[in-house]
Amino acid sequence: MACTSTAGRDDDDKHTTPPGAAHTSRTPLNRVYIITSHLASPISPRFTAIMASEDSAAPVVVDDCRGVLLVYSDGAVVRRDGPSFATPVRDDGTVEWKDAEFDAPRGLGLRLYRPCQRNQLLPVFFYYHGGGFCIGSRTWPNCQNYCLRLAAELGAVVVAPDYRLAPENRLPAAIDDGAAALLWFASQAGPAGDTWLTEAADFTRVFISGDSAGGTIAHHLAVRFGSAAGRSELGNVRVRGYVQLMPFFGGTERTRSEAECPDDAFLNRPLNDRYWRLSLPPGATVDHPASNPFGPDSPALEAVELAPTLVVVGGRDILRDRAVDYAARLR
């Protein structure tokens, strides 16, 4: 679709589109943008999805993740369609995007972005959203804004996949979906690939990124595709680097930044623990390989050829110490 088109208005389709339909950006980009944050800030008011029943035997909420995800005592899961905060999508007309499916049986899609103006093949930047493996979507406005800005300012093709969420789909489901999205992208590098991608993307310059849980997915992809067998899975695709923004790692032993995290932090200890309890396999501890990259059963990294990795974390982030330790061990 041409970059002057106004088809697929975000306020009409609520940021979802049929696979293959292209869209263009329209309004000014934010100059200051937060993807997501674990830093101390007031907790958003809870979203009430179902009014409490007067019947004492009625199911009650046993887990509440920012009001976006409610888990009831009878096992029912209620999800809100969007985030607990209101954020408009801001475009400036320089980026076009479309949706595609990478796992049709599971209904999993991704959103592709590319600058309208380009005179050469562009590097590719994968972005996996955060949300403690329990909430989040490529269609959320904060994710959309970030990807629009990446495409415009980096001059890159941006790929933003969704993945299955917990507790309905516990780990390693999200990690497997992250790998499936990258393998789908690799399958597009051949003659039968989507021309929307092949005419814009340089498949030999791919970077994998994610924030929070998405950063954890990036780690697991680095391990899988850093092996000889993993690299062969990607064919002509070359991953040149990884960017982990506030990666969501865990462990049974508390770190100092976890122990000192204030209760009014946006991501505090109770919510941090809740995400792991809902996302890890039943009965697993936080030393599970999905959460602790250096746990007792986690794969050794010595035999893995890791691409250059940038780890970014806030100085007061609850997960600061784990990210610092992770970066130190990669050196």
UniProtKB/TrEMBL annotation:
Protein origin, superkingdom: Eukaryota
Region named Disordered: 1-25
Residues in Alpha/beta hydrolase fold-3 domain copies: 126-331
GO molecular function (one): hydrolase activity
InterPro entries cross-referenced by the UniProt entry: AB_hydrolase_3, AB_hydrolase_fold, Carboxylest/Gibb_receptor, Lipase_GDXG_put_SER_AS
Active site feature: S212
Full protein name: Alpha/beta hydrolase fold-3 domain-containing protein
